[in-house]
From TrEMBL, chain A:
It comes from the Eukaryota. Coiled coil: none annotated. Pfam families: COMM_domain, COMMD9_HN. It comes from Oncorhynchus mykiss. InterPro entries: COMM (IPR017920), COMMD9 (IPR037360), COMMD9_N (IPR048676). The gene is commd9. Residues 113-186 form the COMM domain. This is COMM domain-containing protein.
Length: 188, 182
C-alpha cells in the first residue's frame, strides 16, 4: 500500500477505480488487472498485484466487520501512510460499502431462488372415467433459478404443478401458519 | 343379479357391497378377488367361473358411473338385462347409497399432471456469511413433492419475505377463484 503513497499523481478517479476493481473475489489473482494497474500507476506488475491484493483485503475486512465510521478504517492503515491518501481511500471504501454489502447478500449461497410465479384455475368437465363433471383445479407455474449456474446468469428452470381444491386449502393452511410465525418473530 | 348356475341362494349383502368397491381396483383388487374366492367356497362353486361372471357384472356399475346414471336408470337397465325385480331393487338402492363415494373416487382417479403431493417448509434467519460477519435476513425454504408418473420429484426453492407474501397473496386469490366455482 505504501506504493500508492510513493506515487505522485494517481488521480482521485484512478484510485476510486482501483478500489472498485480490486473488490471482486477474482481480483487478486487476475494478471490482466495487475498489468493494467501497473500501466496506470507506472509500477511493475508484481507491485501492482500486491497493491490490488492489499486493497482487496482491506475492502473485504471493512465489509466483513461492517465498519461504518471513518475512524474505524483509518486505524487500519500503517502510521507512516500518506494522510490525505488515507482519507481518500477511506472515503471511497465507505461510499462503496452499501453496494458491496448488497452484492454480497445477493450472491450468498442459498437454495435456488424463486424468480417468477403465476397460476390459473381450470374447470375439468370430462375424463375417461367420468363423462360429465365440474371439478375445479389449480395450475401453478414457478420459474426457479437453476442452481447449477452462476447467480444472475439467467438460466431458469420451470416447474408446473397441479393442485386440487383440498391440496390448495392445505397449502394455504401451511402458508398461513408461516405468516403467523413470521409476525410473532417480527413482533419480538 | 343374473341367476347363478350353481346355486339358487340369494346373494348376500356382502357381495353387493363388493360391487360398490369396484373403483378401488388398484389397492383392493386382491381383497376383492379374495372375497370372491371365499364366496365361491361358501356356496360350493369354483372361483374361476365366478370371476368371469364378476367381470361382466362390473360393466354395469362402471358404465353407470361414467354416465352419471340415477338409481331408476340403473334399475331399468338391470331389469332389461333379466335380473329379478327384488335383486334389481336391492342393487339400485345400494347404488344410490354409495353413489357419492363412488363418483368422488372416479373423479379422484382423473388425470392430474405433476400433482403436488406434499409441501415442506422451514424458515430461518441468516446469521452470518463468509463475506459479512453479521447479517439478519429472514429466508423461507420450500420443498415441493411432485408426482411425476409413478415416482415423485422434489423441488427445492428459497423465497425472500416479500416473495413469500406475494406467493401467499396469489394462492389466496387462486383459492377465491376456485371457491367461486363450488
Amino acid at each position: 500500500m505504501s506504493y500508492l503513497s510513493h506515487n505522485k499523481a494517481p488521480s482521485k478517479d484512478a484510485v476510486r477505480q482501483l478500489c472498485a476493481d480490486s473488490f471482486p473475489s477474482g481480483a487478486p489473482e487476475s494478471w490482466r488487472l495487475a498489468e493494467s494497474t501497473a500501466g496506470t500507476l507506472s509500477v511493475s506488475a508484481i507491485e501492482a498485484k500486491e497493491l490490488i491484493a492489499a486493497l482487496h483485503t482491506l475492502s473485504h475486512h471493512i465489509l466483513f466487520h461492517n465498519l461504518t465510521a471513518p475512524e474505524q478504517i483509518l486505524v487500519l492503515f500503517p502510521k507512516s501512510f500518506h494522510p490525505s491518501l488515507k482519507i481518500l481511500i477511506t472515503k471511497i471504501m465507505l461510499e462503496h460499502s452499501p453496494t458491496w454489502r448488497n452484492e454480497a447478500l445477493s450472491n450468498q449461497i442459498s437454495l435456488p431462488h424463486l424468480v417468477e410465479m403465476d397460476w390459473r384455475v381450470d374447470m375439468k368437465t370430462a375424463s375417461d372415467s367420468v363423462s360429465r363433471m365440474a371439478v375445479p383445479t389449480c395450475l401453478v407455474h414457478m420459474k426457479v433459478e437453476d442452481s447449477s449456474c452462476l447467480r444472475g446468469s439467467g438460466a431458469l428452470s420451470s416447474v408446473t404443478v397441479e393442485l386440487s381444491k383440498e391440496t390448495l386449502d392445505t397449502m394455504l393452511d401451511g402458508l398461513g401458519r408461516i405468516r403467523d410465525q413470521l409476525s410473532v418473530v417480527a413482533g419480538k | 343379479m343374473l341367476q347363478l348356475q350353481f346355486t339358487k341362494d340369494t346373494l348376500p349383502d356382502s357381495v353387493s357391497n363388493d360391487f360398490q368397491n369396484l373403483n378401488k381396483f388398484n389397492e383392493q383388487a386382491d381383497r376383492f378377488l379374495h372375497q370372491l374366492s371365499e364366496f365361491a367356497g361358501e356356496n360350493g362353486m369354483s372361483a374361476g367361473p365366478l370371476r368371469n361372471l364378476m367381470k361382466s357384472l362390473l360393466l354395469l356399475p362402471h358404465g353407470s358411473l361414467k354416465k352419471n346414471l340415477t338409481e331408476d336408470q340403473v334399475k331399468e337397465d338391470l331389469l332389461t338385462l333379466g335380473v329379478s325385480e327384488d335383486k334389481a331393487d336391492h342393487f339400485s338402492q345400494q347404488w344410490s347409497l354409495h353413489y357419492p363415494v363412488l363418483s368422488r373416487l372416479a373423479v379422484g382417479q382423473t388425470l392430474m399432471v405433476n400433482q403436488l403431493v406434499d409441501m415442506e417448509w422451514k424458515f430461518g434467519v441468516t446469521v452470518g456469511t463468509s463475506e459479512l460477519q453479521k447479517v439478519g435476513n429472514t429466508f423461507l425454504q420450500l420443498k415441493l413433492v411432485i408426482r411425476k408418473g409413478n415416482s415423485t420429484e422434489n423441488v427445492y426453492m428459497e423465497l425472500t419475505l416479500p416473495q413469500f407474501y406475494n406467493f401467499l397473496h396469489e394462492m389466496e386469490r387462486a383459492k377465491a377463484s376456485m371457491d367461486c366455482f363450488s
